[in-house]
């Protein structure tokens, strides 16, 4: 392995070249097919040339099937090629731009695609693995570089864009995304279309979706808890202080600009503590213990609304910027809600864990560096000590 294994100059883990042509918005129109375990449809990309004369848009893909690429305005087909897979990083999708696309304005490109049933970023669960056992369940986890397994994208956190989505599912299912919902629309064949807008530019790893037999309970002016009906009352009680945590975070960091704050309690097989999807924290059911003792995870995920989701690491070598500042603010929130002693205890506990981990790995182990070196082809997921996201 050598430094030449970096996939691009700005991000060793992404083929994309946002220094040449960058996405400013993604509009998704997709259907969820639980039978085939695929999300299929059309992604429309608003793009702008960053480099005058740029002749291609380069996207990351991983086991996606690309059916067609075309200009939204004229429907003219665009030439494209999908490269050979490179390690665990997927394949480069290179789209040749039309010469009519302007150097100094936006243009729109449509891609018809579907993902592989084996997409790392999507978890498909049969009904019998859910609490209610009535409907199947789907949730995404695109951090760090799994967005490319779900849709073609510039899968580097240095690119931020708005997104919107129309997602069609069977009527019995509810769809949530990391965005603000609009009223649903009826669709043919006993289906329904959910509509979302995310007006704040985000990196594509923060696009998130969950589909299941879900119900909700509002617990604050901006805060709603979602879960299967079997868990909703317990979940709402456990996370009752979420709105207060949000207000405390605002006192420390400034206004919460994402509009709504939803907490979704995932099914029992969810392998993380929490995931900080904008507008929609994913929370493990193991946080519901009946005494609110594990809800600091919610303070952590709320904090990511500023550190990570608004101010973001440029690439995954600098992941400490997302997590380090989030831990700092999380403990500030704990201090304001539970007292300075609790904050000091949490800080000391974190420091002890860090010292122990460095000793275990060895102080000269490159994985103990604050800023990682991923240019040797190391996958970001192989470089993090733990998945405390
Ligand atoms: Zn985190």
UniProtKB/TrEMBL annotation:
One of its GO terms (biological process) is proteolysis. Its cofactor is Zn(2+). GO terms for molecular function: aminopeptidase activity; epoxide hydrolase activity; metallopeptidase activity; zinc ion binding. SUPFAM superfamilies: Leukotriene A4 hydrolase N-terminal domain, Metalloproteases ('zincins'), catalytic domain. The keyword Amino-acid biosynthesis does not apply. The keyword Metal-binding applies. Residues 237-342 form the Peptidase M1 membrane alanine aminopeptidase domain. Zn(2+) binds at residues 300, 304, 323. It comes from the Eukaryota. It holds the Pfam family Peptidase_M1. Keywords: Cytoplasm, Hydrolase, Metal-binding, Metalloprotease, Protease, Zinc. Residues 27-206 form the Aminopeptidase N-like N-terminal domain. Binds 1 zinc ion per subunit. Belongs to the peptidase M1 family. This is LTA4H.
